[in-house]
Structure formats: C-alpha cells, structure tokens
Amino acid sequence: FSSSESASNLKALFDFVRTSLTPAGSDSWKGPVLLVDDLSVLLSLGVTPVAVLDFIHYCRVAVCSQLKGNIVVLVHSNEDSEDEENELVVNSLCHHSDLILWVEGLATGFCKDVHGQIKIIRRVSLELTAEQDHVQIYQYKIQDKNVTFFARGLSAAVL
After folding, report:
1. Which entry of 63, 133, 150, 155 is 20 to 30 Å from 96 by CA?
2. CA atoms within 13 A on the CB side of 72
3. Which helix (H) or strand (E) holds 122?
4. Facing residues of 99 across strands?
C-alpha cells in the first residue's frame, strides 16, 4: 500500500479481513468467501482508485491464493457515467475476474413483466488469448419473495 492516509485505512481493513478469514487452531476453513458489498463506497469516501485496487489485489492474494477461497465484489457502473475513477475500478475488476454478473435495466425501458437482464460472462482465460468469453444473457422479474429468470423474449407476458 502507498503511504497516503486512505491507503493506510485500507491496510487496516485488509488486516481485519485477513485476520478474520485465517483459521485459528483447529478451525479449518474450506474455501472461504469474502463478500464486498459495495466497493464504490470507498471511492465516495475519498479513497483513490489505486488504493482500492491495491486493497482488492491484497485480498485476492490472501483469500484466493493462500486460503483457496473466492472474492465476490459489488460495484456500480453506468456506461454514461462521467465518474472516471469508478469506471477505472470497474474495468480493472472486470479484467481480473473469472466470472462477471452484469445486471442492467432493459434497453427498451420500463416493462411491468421484465425488470431487467443479467449477463453472465465466464472468462475462458485471464490472459490475452484468441479464446472468446462465454456469455449468457437472461432476463428477470423481481417478485415479492424471489426472482424469476428466463431466456430473452420468453417472459410470461410474451408467451
């Protein structure tokens, strides 16, 4: 981490994450998962994108490489966004992720029977290769206690 105040605060957060996930004594964590609910909040608190990406890098090393677990990160993005710092973080995370779930509204606007779509991108390789990522797109409808997913164009309203 760099020597800035925000980076030192993230170092303390990373130390907490590492300590919390490291098994103690007879405990045996099998595939721990670190959930980061909204990484964009750190940027709104004044943390630099480099410090945020360093934090995620250190978490990835500790959780994925050392503890053989996974990290799930939520970030908000908007193609029309002028928030360059946030877009830098989003693009970097996408570049270094094995699986991307991209949730967005419908391009055609509001629909009472389809609330949006989710794009599932499975990265074949994190290296620069000619292999194409596997992309699946589903639409969804949010109900009172669950979410219904269906292939594009196959909502109950259409059928």
Report:
1. 150
2. 7
3. strand 116-122
4. 122
β-pairing, 70-73 with 33-36?
Answer: parallel
Residue 15, φ and ψ in degrees, nearest 5? -60, -40
Q: Look at residue 5 and give its three-state secondary structure.
A: helix
Sequence-ordered list of residues with C-beta below 8 angstroms from that of 98, at least 6 positions apart, any chain: 122, 123, 126
- Joined tokens for residue 65: 């490489």
DSSP letters along 36-96, please?
Answer: ES-THHHHHTT--HHHHHHHHHHHIIIIIIIS--EEEE-----TT---HHHHHHHHHHHHT
Query: How do residues 142-153 score in pLDDT, each as one tens digit?
Result: 888 998 888 877
Q: How far apart are CA 44 and CA 153, in angstroms?
A: 37
Q: 48-97 pLDDT, tens per residue? A: 999 999 999 999 999 999 888 999 999 988 766 778 888 999 999 988 89
Residue 81 to residues 28, 58, 92, 130, Cα–Cα distance (Å): 43, 27, 16, 30
| pLDDT of 4 higher than 90 | no
Distances from the Cα of 131 to the Cα of 93, 124, 125, 126, 128, angstroms: 19, 7, 7, 10, 8
